[in-house]
Amino acid sequence: MMTRCLNCFSICGPLERNPHSRPSKDIMEKPYTTNADTHHESEESRNGLEGREIINEDMKLHPENSNEELDDSSRRISKNIILNHDFSGGLDLWHPNCCDAYIVSEKNGHAGESLSKLQGRFVVVTNRKECWQGLEQDITDRVSVSASYSVCAWVAISGDSSHGTQDVLATLKLEKQDGSVDFLFIGRTCASMDRWEKVEGKFSLDNPPRRAIFYLEGPSNGINLLIRSVVICCSQRSTLADGDENIVQNPQFDGGLNSWSGRGCNAVLHDSMAEGKVLPKTGKFFVSTANRSQNWNGIQQEISGRVQRKLAYEVFATVRLFGDNITSSDIRATLWLKQDNREQYIGISSVQATDKDWVQLQGKFLVNGSPSRVVIFLEGPPPGTDILLNNLIVKHAAKVPPPPPPGTKNIDFGVNIIANSNLNDGTNGWFPLGDCTLSAQYGSPHIAPPMARDSLGFLEPLSGRYILATHRTQTWMGPAQMITEKVKLYLTYQVSAWVRIGNQATKPQTINIALGVDTQWVNGGQVECANDGRWNEIGASFRIEKPPSKIMVYVQGPDPGVDLMLAGLQIFPVDRCLRFQKLKKQTDTIRKRDVVLKLRSSDSSKLLGSSVKIRQTQSSFPIGSCIGRANIDNEDIAEFFTKYFNWGVFENELKWYWTESQQGNLNYRDADDLMKLCNSHGIQVRGHCIFWEVESAVPSWVRSLNKNDMLSAVENRLTSLLTKYMGCFKHYDVNNEMLHGSFFKDHLGDEIRATMFKKANLIDPPVTLFVNDYNVEDGFDARSLPEKYIEHILSLQEQGAPVGGIGIQGHTSSPVGSIVCSALDKLAILGLPIWFTELDAASDNEYIRADDLEVMLREAFAHPAVGGIMLWGFWELCMSRQNAHLVNAEGDINEAGKRLLALKKEWSTHIHGCFNEQGQVAFRGFHGSYEAQVELPTGKVSKTFVVEQGNEPLVIYVDL
């Protein structure tokens, strides 16, 4: 074994930095489902067919009635990585995905009129109940990141002739090293019943997957998919294998430790470790750290001069752990930049690494400014644990076409997918999860819960029967039901039920409706129940975006020994477009006003033939976004922000850990730069936040103080911040997330929260002081349901806190309008303005993301208690939440961004008309500023005016 050591060298020094100096999110994210039904091929079968050389002109398989000849350019000798590509070996190595398949050949006859038109040997995929069901083959061991692949498959369909033609898709399922799953669209064709059609496409892999499954899918349920042959050939070798595109120098350590160094520790070159038990995954060498004493110690390379600003870069690293006292830990890839004496850390990605095997870390980053120095490094595990790096790739990220909008035809909106929901057939269809007992009882509400009624309108009365779960010995035990075949991908499902607990409870209990989607838990709603004999409404939503093999819904939560009761459980797909019509009418009532534009002139002849163009120049309704100091170095980001938003909030730059990371060393420079940008464009600003109640967000030096010193630090923070920016901020979030954290309350007493509000009000009286929290509007978290938020606000007010506004963060997933509206209605009884303060919507599919965003924007804009909407970012790689961006990293506006701009256009007023005989033009316009240009026979006259909220028509006079 060879080992070479390089002493530690620190590019920027072993600076201690707060983990929150990177973009943070004020949210606990919920898991998405990723598993799908797949199969392994046998090793014996694969070895028996590996390495056949065949001709790539559909490999001499020209379907007789295809009416198409392949290009001569494709008639070259090439290696097909699909085994048993023409089904000459039957279905060997092929697997039907949750359906059935059989071989048809001329020997056994082509049964059926539709099949008789198709000649040769082919496979029929039948008993398909979902469009994604088809035929698949595992190609994991036959694909490489160093190549591009061309795909050609001949397909047809059979079945109900009324369907005509059907889309057939070629898809690649990629299981990543971290267990997540991606689906890569390759190509599609319009298949028919009387001829073979060709599916063509290309793909390449950015990083080695744990598994790669190729499959054909697409036709509607009930339609058979016919496949004649499949060819996948390597069409081009990537130059990346030679390092031409990789900006990392010596990426696989063939040049020893050249260009590499330890970051606050040593870097050591190896060809093996642990007596040969640890070997490189690829290549001949790998590097390990040695003598790590801090979490930020690791392996680094300076890449200054090789990174271009405003370009997105992909990062791939093969890593693992080595140490005596740890088996798993996060390894993080981080970028350090220095520009104009300002340092920035960009978190690229992290992966859960182990000491058992190599894993793949991957992520992306964007450099907005023009840094003088850039260093990429790996960090994360606790001191004493070494990081092993086998290779590192950093390259310009390829632009990937967005996935198509999901098909949602023939959906039974509002239809409950739960069997025997009313228990008319006892407990049939239900089963106990765990060793508990289920029985049907009588005595539950006869009406559906309010949120369900709001979504569905009139509903038949419930039966009054409920499931009683007794003898529960674990919190997860309760009633359950399988719903695998009933859930459609990409649909938003609303969950609604009545729940109650038994009298064994000695304290309030949380009840949760959950879904087991393969191995993942999906939250279907929570509520806290008291032992008071009352039924409680539980309502939330969910969406499944990846094909699962099984889905189970179950009800859980109360302590062992506490009985659980469930009545009227409904899970139904929501028709969002239907609700939008209602919201548009509400918006017209709430956000518009009648306006009459009148001409005044001593000479009435001047009015004849007059016309007017009325243009709204500014909306009075706040729609804003957060912005970060590093982001505005990118002029494209700054331009989008100032062009489309009229309010702003600083993402991190006003938080205590940012402005005073070390006691007494105040840093308001970044906040000053952002304030200057906003002021120069007339953008109003919210202050987020003075304090943050969650302990991990409190500066480390504050956490170490005794009570008296901590109280002094709190008072100094209030005085310093609010005095400096007196009159600059319109709002302050005083103490962020008090429903989810209690640091200051625990250390300084219950009264400290109200004290913060009172002292802030004394220093800067005009500013509106907000509470701010998450999971308020979605039903996912029993700690922050509207009822809990109301109790919290009333408690603060009783202690004298001048609470002036209610902040709902709005980090949403699968939102349902009636649930959001219900939360707003409940909070509105306090008479305070409600703002969505950190709104974002996340989905891999930008069309789904756009739909979610539209739900939230329309619900907010149509509700009279909502005073404004703030997005929590908009630019890819500049947001705390992945897959929530409206603009792609290099400036392309995606579907979610287009939806926002379309709504802003819909919510503005533009009129072109003629004055009547009385010299009047009447219209109904959105609140805001206007410019009218009157065109007279003698010339033009301009008039500016403001339409404010009001019930009476606004009369505007134009003097001629």
Map the helices and strands.
Blueprint: E1 3-6, H1 43-49, E2 53-55, E3 77-79, E4 95-96, E5 100-104, H2 113-116, E6 122-126, E7 135-138, E8 147-158, E9 166-175, E10 181-191, E11 197-204, E12 211-217, E13 224-237, E14 261-263, E15 266-270, E16 286-290, E17 298-302, E18 312-322, E19 328-339, E20 342-354, E21 359-366, E22 373-379, E23 386-396, E24 431-433, E25 437-442, H3 450-456, E26 465-470, E27 478-482, E28 493-501, E29 509-517, E30 520-529, E31 536-542, E32 551-556, E33 564-573, H4 576-590, E34 592-600, E35 611-619, E36 623-627, H5 635-644, E37 647-650, H6 656-659, H7 669-680, E38 684-692, H8 700-703, H9 707-724, E39 731-736, H10 743-748, H11 752-763, E40 768-773, H12 786-798, E41 805-808, E42 811-812, H13 817-828, E43 834-841, H14 846-861, E44 866-871, H15 895-906, E45 910-914, E46 920-926, E47 928-936, E48 939-947, E49 954-959
Parallel strand pairs: 34-49, 36-37, 36-44, 37-38, 38-39, 39-40, 40-41, 41-43, 42-43, 43-44
Antiparallel strand pairs: 1-15, 2-3, 4-7, 5-6, 6-13, 7-12, 8-11, 8-13, 9-10, 9-12, 14-17, 15-16, 16-23, 17-22, 18-21, 18-23, 19-20, 19-22, 24-27, 25-26, 26-33, 27-32, 28-31, 28-33, 29-30, 29-32, 34-46, 35-45, 35-47, 47-48
